[in-house]
């Protein structure tokens, strides 16, 4: 089905429309063999609060952006290669329902669909696209992914020292390895995480000690334990900062 659509006029026209909606600031999306599988609005859990984002699923990439005018104009285009993607379902809790994690080596975040059916369709299509890509390339699924960020609202005190209270003066920071919200003194060190940045990034003292001793996976395992042990954390501790003005920390 995808192969038949690849060179069709209808597919080319649909991709061209998506390109035009992002305007000159967006990257070109039309390449030979690329097929637009589907599109829709999903709620993305960002650092400050959940926000509606327009998503486009292609057979090789996932594209999303801010909604300026629905179906007419989007900005802040993000492109995620699907061969690096793994997804995990998230349990429903409160107003956050029908969600799943999108995890890549560069960034990871949670999204929520309007209905359970829509969630199932998105996850099935993403998994099928990833499976087809890996099958064609002969590559193995990625087992490395960036930590999801704990939203600011979930931490009134530093999640490492458990002492420092956050105020307008004592700001929140995020460890790039575990995603915890930490105070300045607990995250003064930097470490090079090549999948996330070409420059050393902020990490907490706990993760720095693990990384410095070569225990590269231990910190991420500790973060994963947080999800499995706490039902609340499995929903509310997943976020990233790419849509917020203050994204440096």
Compact overview of the structure:
The chain has helices at residues 2-6, 9-22, 116-137, 205-212, 218-229, 231-236; strands spanning 36-45, 50-58, 61-69, 73-81, 86-90, 99-103, 108-112, 173-174, 181-182, 190-191, 201-202. It is of the alpha+beta class.
Key traits:
seven-stranded antiparallel β-sheet, 2 domains, two-stranded antiparallel ribbon, PH-domain like, 24% strand, alpha+beta, single chain, 249 residues, disordered C terminus, Herpes Virus-1
Description:
This protein is α+β, with helices and mostly antiparallel strands and 249 residues long. The protein folds into two domains: 145 residues, Pleckstrin-homology domain (PH domain)/Phosphotyrosine-binding domain (PTB) (PH-domain like, Roll), CATH 2.30.29; 62 residues, Zinc/RING finger domain, C3HC4 (zinc finger) (Herpes Virus-1, 2-Layer Sandwich). 27% of the residues lie in helices and 24% in strands. The protein has a seven-stranded antiparallel beta sheet with strand order 4-3-2-1-7-6-5. The N and C termini lie far apart (44 Å). The C terminus is likely disordered.
Q: N-to-C terminal Cα separation, in Å?
A: 44 Å
| Rg result | 19 Å
Q: Within the largest sheet, what's the order of strands?
A: 4-3-2-1-7-6-5
* CATH class bucket of the largest domain: Mainly Beta
Strand content: 15-25%
Largest sheet: 7 strands, antiparallel
**Structural class computed from helices and strand pairing:** alpha+beta
**CATH architecture assignment name of the largest domain:** Roll
Q: Can you count the helices?
A: 6
The CATH superfamily title of the largest domain: Pleckstrin-homology domain (PH domain)/Phosphotyrosine-binding domain (PTB)
* Helicity level: 25-40%
Integer tally of domains = 2
The name CATH uses for the topology of the largest domain is PH-domain like
Care to count the β-strands?
11
């Amino acid at each position: 089905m995808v192969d038949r659509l690849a060179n069709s006029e209808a597919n080319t026209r649909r991709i061209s429309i998506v390109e035009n909606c992002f305007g000159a600031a967006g990257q070109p999306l039309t390449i030979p063999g690329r097929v637009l599988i589907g599109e829709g609005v999903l709620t993305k859990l960002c650092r400050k609060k959940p926000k509606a984002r327009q998503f486009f699923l292609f057979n090789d990439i996932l594209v999303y952006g801010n909604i300026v005018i629905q179906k007419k104009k989007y900005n802040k285009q993000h492109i995620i290669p699907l061969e690096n993607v793994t997804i995990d379902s998230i349990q429903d809790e409160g107003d956050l329902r029908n969600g799943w994690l999108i995890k890549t080596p560069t960034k990871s975040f949670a999204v929520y669909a309007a209905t359970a059916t829509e969630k199932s369709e998105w996850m099935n299509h993403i998994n099928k696209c990833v499976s087809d890509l890996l099958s064609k390339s002969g590559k193995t699924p990625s087992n490395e992914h960036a930590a999801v960020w704990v939203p600011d609202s979930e931490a009134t005190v530093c999640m490492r020292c458990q002492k420092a209270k956050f105020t307008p003066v004592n700001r929140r920071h995020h460890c790039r390895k575990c995603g915890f919200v930490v105070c300045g003194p607990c995250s003064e060190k930097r470490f090079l995480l090549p999948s996330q940045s070409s420059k050393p990034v902020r990490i907490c003292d706990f993760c720095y000690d693990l990384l410095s001793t070569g225990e590269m996976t231990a910190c991420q395992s500790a973060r994963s334990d947080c999800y499995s042990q706490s039902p609340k954390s499995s929903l509310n501790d997943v976020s990233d900062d790419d849509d917020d003005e203050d994204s440096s920390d």
